[in-house]
Amino acid sequence: SKAEMRHTCRGTINLATANITVEDSCNFIISNGGAQTYHLKASSEVERQRWVTALELAKAKAVKMLEESDDSGDESVSQTDKTELQSTLRTLSSKVEDLSTCNDLIAKHGTALQRSLSELEALRLPADSTEKIKQVNERATLFRITSNAMINACRDFLMLAQTHSKKWQKSLQHERDQRIRLEETLEQLAKQHNHLERAFRGATVLPASAPGTAGSNKDPCCPAKGDLSDEDDDNEFFDAPEIITMPESMGHKRTGSNISGTSSDISLDEQYKHQVEDTKKEKRTRIPYKPNYSLNLWSIMKNCIGKELSKIPMPVNFNEPLSMLQRLTEDLEYHELLDRAAKCESSLEQLCYVAAFTVSSYSTTVFRTSKPFNPLLGETFELDRLEENGYRSLCEQVSHHPPAAAHHADSKHGWTLRQEIKITSKFRGKYLSIMPLGTIHCVFHSSGHHYTWKKVTTTVHNIIVGKLWIDQSGEIEIVNHKTGDKCNLKFVPYSYFSRDVARKVTGEVMDPSGKVHFVLLGTWDEKMDCYKVTMGAGDNGGEGRQRAHEAEDSRVLLWKRNPLPKHAENMYYFSELALTLNAPESGTAPTDSRRRPDQRLMENGRWDEANAEKQKLEEKQRTSRKRREAEAARATEDGTPYDPYKPLWFERRKDPVTQELEHVYKGGYWESKDKQDWSLCPDIF
Q1: pTM of the predicted model as reported, rounded to 2 decimal places
Q2: Is residue 214 situated within a structural domain?
Q3: Which of 278, 524, 586, 590 is most buried by its number of CB atoms within 10 A?
């Protein structure tokens, strides 16, 4: 394209600055005086001379073009811009002329004033009057010098504006053209890609009666390892008009208005009460299927490049019907790994299970390309599984900008897990990076072993064109602060050219001296194995570890992913636990995510109403924030004490182990639930 002409390819020499030298009868050299040099050989002296002459002529032309573009590079400036520029320059010139006229007048009147003052000085006046007149004379001179300096500065400014305006205008126009060209190219690419995918699906679709199709043993919920093409079509974003339509046949028929959250016969509150039926006894195994909405993704995302994702107002079309607090609670899906770790007598074996637990928290992300809802400030989520699984968990959104959630889980099997996670994310155009900041703590009650680790970076690829897919990359160091044992886990980023298994995770469990006792191997979306390292005589390194891989008899399966529920592809690829998280429950706090109206509407397939409700909630939150800021400003002015926002169930403390300031559970939630006393809860929904 024309845009590429401005950028050189690797190995290019700009003719305008090239050095062309003849080496001998057939050889000559072209170089740019440094990085790039070409030695060229012609078949005869005549041919060499023809080439050198042609290159010299081309060089002269390039130099001339460069000078012209520097001097009068207005070709790309439109007629409208030229007129606007000339008008601005004319206005500037007239203003400077006005100033010049003022200067002449000041000079004229100043001279007259000084003459009058000199005449006054010559008169016989009292001594103090003469002194005063001298002072006035000096001030008049200073005033004239200052006004002259101002006029000169204005003239210099005008000259500079005239000199540089052409270059500025040209640069600005070039940037505009580049942006328009990029938008057009991307839109064209998205359309072509969509057209190709549809054509491909149309060409490869089998007739319903084809033999073997009904009895296919391939599970649609579990695609082949690393095969991205098997992922569900619901994750595809079609290039479509801004207007979103929903087929009537989806089974979520609307009644009445599309805007009002209470348009149906039963209000949301009544629906919520109606749905709370024996949720403790029987967990739900399905949710309403995801509607097949179409959306022009590029129309929303093109203005978001380089921005923080939490600050971009996104429609629910990109979400899944769970909040970030519920997503954080999903870390406990494989809680039995911590139950098993609590029973371990060896701290190194215990560390193996803790490492498997850290990896297991990513298993739910492999197909989950939708974004969870950003929790509102003060929003909470509880999960009470004390009877069934022996643990209960509480999350609270403790900060809105930057978004931060605190999480605390206790188990009667002898462990406590707590974390405060701040999510920072950047949209880079082609991919989205999500960086969770914060430390995760796991404490085992009987042994007092205290483990800490941090999360790795999650990347969502193919944001604009193609099938969305997720990758995890980075390293995790798990430390036992009581014994000094460590485990280093490495999440290998996906590479198209690598022969390695996709989504691979490797790890080593070491004692405080650095000696490796266990090697971990697996993938973050499927399973983790553990091999005991048996060292040979005098062997302390790689060979011993290699033998551990070969020693199949020492292999222990630490963790294996649970299969996805049937028809998970129609239910946002939720796991069995995820399907239960938003099920209505009686007795929860009024700030609980299950009571969030936009999320409930979205889960029920009423996306238009969910979008309207989401805007209302966000506006309510903005109003609350502005009110707090105004109160803080008033308190500062009056000098009165002001209490900043404080979370309800967590308080900020310095952690004695990591020395970081963290929100730690201060207690009181489960007691308030027993009494059903929620008087302290803010009204956020």
Answers
A1: 0.62
A2: no
A3: 524
